[in-house]
Amino acid sequence: MSAGPRPIRTRLAVTLLAYGAVALAACLLAPLVGSTSISLSRAFDRSIPFADNVDAQIFFIARLPRVLAGAIVGAAFASAGVVLQALLRNPLATPFTLGVSAGSALGAILAISFGSALALGPLLPVPLASLAGAFMSAAIVYAMATRPGRPISTSVLLLAGVTLNSFFSALILLVQYMSDFAEAYRTVRWLMGDLDVGGFGPILGALPLIVVAFVIFARLSSSLNVLSVGADTAATRGVDVARTQRLAFVSAALATSAAVSLAGPIGFVGIVVPHLVRLMTGVDHRIVLPASALFGAAFLVACDLVARTVLAPVEVPVGVVTAMLGGPFFLWLLIRRG
Amino acid sequence: MTLQVAHVSFGYNAGYDALDEATRSFSLCDVSITIPRGSLTGLLGPNGCGKTTLLKLMAGVLRPHEGAITLDGRDIDGISRRKLARYIAVVPQETHPGFDYSVLEMVLMGRHPHLGAFQLEGPEDIAIAHESLSATGTSHLASRPYMTLSGGEKQRVVIASALAQAPDVLLLDEPTASLDLAYQMEVAALLDRLNRDRGVSMVLATHDLNLAASLCDSLVLVRSGRVLAHGPTREVLSVAMIQQLYDVEADVQFHEASGHLTVVPIRRAQ
């Protein structure tokens, strides 16, 4: 269990193998399910030319980008949730606590409403504007919560994030009120989250940001253990507290912003997954972080599979599925804590 | 190692915001004390006199605005956090981890300053953690969740975690404040043993004059941010000094059975 008589090396290896296998299985099996059923062996059969292999075309072109988007976004939200929960020393924090979700939504909605004017070469205006909105809100929260040479004020961080979220939500309503029906529908649809990103291009655009964030997460994981015990304690255990907190904030904001710009603000992944993982692996961040990233990938791919199939041929927005699962789970956590 | 505090002044509002001499106020003013290798020093003074601030300065958590704190002559400001944590460890008044770590995990965090950024603890670190658990009599708690322990058990586990840092100096902020009499005696005996057996220097902030009298070879008395007296316990712990320090009249006697001074407070001085 949490103490684990086995040494950390063994536990880490077992975790990576087990959760990696789950994530891989989800990514390989999910593309097989859909309106047309296909076979995995035929999709990977190299003897049939790709142009004639319908199974391969459906697997790689129609379904795989969506599944990969789910995996990357799920991994990003889940691990950013872990990092923020450690930074704020609060297991109920989520990636959107930073105010990033409403900021990015405002950006996306402005792009939807005033779209074509914002196009920048080959880059799509909506993801670009939502990324800009996310960065802007993270920068505001960061500037409010930090003072030179001092630890981050976690209470200011929380309050600024919550305030910014409500303020931007009001602006979103205003823009929506002034836009026409088609734009308003696209806005609502964006807010529900959508992993149908339309090919590998947008994924490759968001991936570098998420990879950079993951490298920082890995670098921080043991310091996050000590930091979650208390800032002063961490300082006397050899952690540069101000630097670690800043890196944690920036990397979590980076991963969240990139994921939101790719797929919209899909809620609850960042809280449900870390909690389930802690129940299974204990609370050591060196284990919880990689396990949450891998389990988050599998979780969102599975939720999207449900979203695609449960009411087929009608598709349920994936954000609705995660919320249906996550909302009651969150309440159960609160009841259990009380 | 000798830890030296030389002419240190510090104020919580003496930083960037208050460069104006008139509005600057110091919580500690021109404090100078020496903690020789292997010594056990008590830090006494009324609430808010600056004891905890002084400990945080000595641990390098806060930086002095004037003066310097040196370790064998080297300014600790020039030593990296990681390196400093290998020399100086701290036992805070209370520790409330944000997550449900096991006792062994808490103690292994003491090895943090000895490990590289991507390095996982090895058999040697685990051996040191178990040795620290056994030195504090908490081996049987190793797999228990820290949060389920009693106050006395928690305090001993936090001391074990600090010991796992293998420090030369241990700074303790009221380590017995929330403990019942039996646990107080237990923690006091533990500190005494660690000081003797391992030669760890200790600085102990406390309100318990009798604990200080029984444990400490020298005392530092702090009042309103200034050092009132600094010297051997039997010289410093006097009726006159206690009155000056706390505005309390007390009786100080040598107690035969325990072999140290005892203090009995009588009334607030007028």
How much of the sequence lies in strands of chain A comes to under 5%
CATH homologous superfamily grouping of chain A: ABC transporter involved in vitamin B12 uptake, BtuC
Number of domains of chain A: 1
Helical segment count of chain B: 9
- CATH C-level class of chain A is Mainly Alpha
Radius of gyration of chain A: 20 Å
> Mean pLDDT of chain A, as a whole number?
89
What's the overall average pLDDT of chain B, rounded? 90
Number of strands of chain B: 12
Q: Biggest protein-protein interface?
A: A-B, 37 and 44 residues
Q: So how many helices of chain A?
A: 13
**The biggest beta sheet of chain A, please?**
none
**What multimeric state do the chains show?**
heterodimer
Taken from the alpha-carbon principal axes, the silhouette of chain A is globular
Distance between the termini of chain B: 43 Å
Task: Output the structural class of chain A.
Answer: mainly alpha
* Fold-level CATH name of chain A: ABC transporter involved in vitamin B12 uptake, BtuC
**Gross morphology of chain B:** globular
